[in-house]
Amino acid sequence: MLDELRSIFPEKTPFVVLTATATKEIKFEIMKKLNMEQDRTDTIWMLPERPNLTYIVKKITKQMTDLQWIWNDIKVDEEKAKKTIVYCRNISSCAALYKYFFYELSKSADDVHSRRIAMFHRSTAEANKVHVMSEFPKLDNKVRVVFATIAFGMSVDIADVEQIIHWGAPRGLEQFTQESCRAGRDGRHALSVVYYSSFDISKGRCK
């Protein structure tokens, strides 16, 4: 109903519409919904190319042990380990990875605030979500790796994330672009790694 909101303002009131990613078709759909006339609307856009990102694609070979290099980094560097988001295709995969890292890192402390890893999905306890959203953006935070689903997406703008890992191929290019580009926002070199299986990219599971 945003078009109705526009109608109550004076005709020359400027409006700005912002989006991170939009195809040509979506752009015209947005303009149509908001009753924005094409000949009276300026469009400013840029390619989503990120020269400071290195993209790597790997086929899963040894299941969770493929991510050994990440928990090695935590064991060695602890709070100085690279800040990483691991995106999973579903909640069960997210929970399995969290459990695996929890035991591999031998962290049996009950206090979630002392852990180097965290989990974020729609069913995560609200207190844990608040902890992740308040702690992870800090430059000197204890949490170094967050295992997440697409729920950890909107409003996530953390400048010093150095690695985005996709555990399972993303469901589409738009989702992949949005999630991978959450790395290296401070301009430093960053890494985007996709681990995929044949099942992930089977017909109908990826666009």
Automatic annotation (TrEMBL):
Stretches assigned to coiled coil: none
Database matches in PROSITE patterns: HELICASE_CTER (PS51194)
Signal peptide range: none
GO molecular function: 3'-5' DNA helicase activity; DNA binding; four-way junction helicase activity; hydrolase activity
Pfam family, one: Helicase_C
Gene3D superfamilies hit by this protein: P-loop containing nucleotide triphosphate hydrolases (3.40.50.300)
EC annotation from Swiss-Prot or TrEMBL: 5.6.2.4
InterPro entries on file: Helicase_C-like, P-loop_NTPase
Cell cycle as UniProt keyword: no
GO cellular component: chromosome; cytoplasm; nucleus
Annotated Helicase C-terminal domain residues: 52-207
Catalyzed reactions: Couples ATP hydrolysis with the unwinding of duplex DNA by translocating in the 3'-5' direction
The organism's place on the tree of life at top rank: Eukaryota
PANTHER family registered for this protein in UniProt: DNA HELICASE RECQ FAMILY MEMBER, RECQ-LIKE DNA HELICASE BLM
Annotated protein name in UniProt: DNA 3'-5' helicase
Record organism: Mytilus coruscus
